[in-house]
Amino acid sequence: MTAILRGDLVARELDDATRIEVERLRADGIDPSLAVVLVGEDPASEIYVRRKRLAAEAVGIRSIEHRLGAATSQQSLLALIATLNADPGIHGILVQLPLPPQIASDEVLGAITPHKDVDGFHPVNVGRLSTGTGGLIPCTPLGCMLLLDRVIADFRGLKAVVIGKSNIVGKPVAMLLLERECTVTITHIHTRGLPEIARTADIIVAAAGSPGLVRGDWVKPGAVLIDVGINRIAREDGKTVIVGDVAANECDHAAVLTPVPRGVGPMTIACLLRNTVQAARLALA
Ligand SMILES: Nc1nc2c(c(=O)[nH]1)N[C@@H](CN(C=O)c1ccc(C(=O)N[C@@H](CCC(=O)O)C(=O)O)cc1)CN2
């Protein structure tokens, strides 16, 4: 029997802890504040930004949204970031991804002051993560680790296979697993012999953005499966449903599986709030 590890429930617990931290910061005279920048009208991004605002408000974090048109120039966006960097009342800055094609995401993310970079995407935070020297950790990978902490006490020597090599999930989660002394293999959809490699894993983190990619026969009995995929697909009846990267119905022999939805996704938002509190505490130091 596979245990279903519900990220939405863990996220609620995390939010309770964050709420307490927010109250402590308030008592120290800090009003934790998050600036969320949305460029364009991507429907999924609209949903995520709204959820972030509601979740922030629910734990007492002040959330300020900046909505810019789809034709916004990189220069205008960089000017906004410079203003937010200089504002002592803003502790966290988040630029929702993806950005429209005229904007170079790496330049924008690199313009955010590292100690306000609550997404952990700035090269300084990426470098800190890869050297194990602190910094703000990207939200989805942090969420994956906090979920794994619920079911694994000792990571040392476990074989972890990460499927997906994105800067947002694949690479940082691999670094975090390595830091815990797992033996980590980073793979992607072009990896040769991917099913055989996956079959060696004690932990699979599936973050390829490919619906149902991880089949039952890719999974070793007793493996822990963290499904990061959020794929919107049209069903035969015309309805759109969200499915993960794991063919969950074929994986009864796994020990643990995170569902999609209500798995890693809600943890991403809870970790954003946690990072915002961490960034606000940096302002106290
Ligand atoms: N600046 C960032 N941009 C993006 C990030 C990010 O971490 N920082 N991640 C994703 C989108 N994302 C947050 O921004 C996100 C994705 C999914 C969920 C979520 O809770 N999903 C639900 C199901 C999906 C739905 O109902 O629409 C779930 O899994 O239960 C939260 C946040 C890309 N951009």
TrEMBL record:
Is NADP tagged as a keyword? yes
Query: Where's the Tetrahydrofolate dehydrogenase/cyclohydrolase NAD(P)-binding domain?
Result: 138-281
* Gene3D superfamilies assigned: Leucine Dehydrogenase, chain A, domain 1, NAD(P)-binding Rossmann-like Domain
Chain sites annotated for binding NADP(+) = G164, K165, S166, I189, I230
Q: Which domain of life is it from?
A: Bacteria
**What SUPFAM superfamilies does the entry give?**
Aminoacid dehydrogenase-like, N-terminal domain, NAD(P)-binding Rossmann-fold domains
Annotated pathway = One-carbon metabolism; tetrahydrofolate interconversion
**Which CDD domains does the record match to this protein?**
NAD_bind_m-THF_DH_Cyclohyd
Q: What is its EC number?
A: 1.5.1.5, 3.5.4.9
Q: Which UniProt keywords apply?
A: Amino-acid biosynthesis, Histidine biosynthesis, Hydrolase, Methionine biosynthesis, Multifunctional enzyme, NADP, One-carbon metabolism, Oxidoreductase, Purine biosynthesis
Residue ranges spanning the membrane: these are none
Instruction: Indicate whether RNA-binding appears among the record's keywords.
Output: no
Question: Which reaction is this enzyme known to catalyze?
Answer: (6R)-5,10-methenyltetrahydrofolate + H2O = (6R)-10-formyltetrahydrofolate + H(+); (6R)-5,10-methylene-5,6,7,8-tetrahydrofolate + NADP(+) = (6R)-5,10-methenyltetrahydrofolate + NADPH
Provide the Tetrahydrofolate dehydrogenase/cyclohydrolase catalytic domain boundaries: 5-119
The record's listing under Pfam families reads: THF_DHG_CYH, THF_DHG_CYH_C
Q: What does this protein do?
A: Catalyzes the oxidation of 5,10-methylenetetrahydrofolate to 5,10-methenyltetrahydrofolate and then the hydrolysis of 5,10-methenyltetrahydrofolate to 10-formyltetrahydrofolate.
Q: Which family does it belong to?
A: Belongs to the tetrahydrofolate dehydrogenase/cyclohydrolase family.
Q: Quaternary structure?
A: Homodimer.
This protein is called what?
A: Bifunctional protein FolD
Q: Which organism is it from?
A: Sphingomonas oryzagri
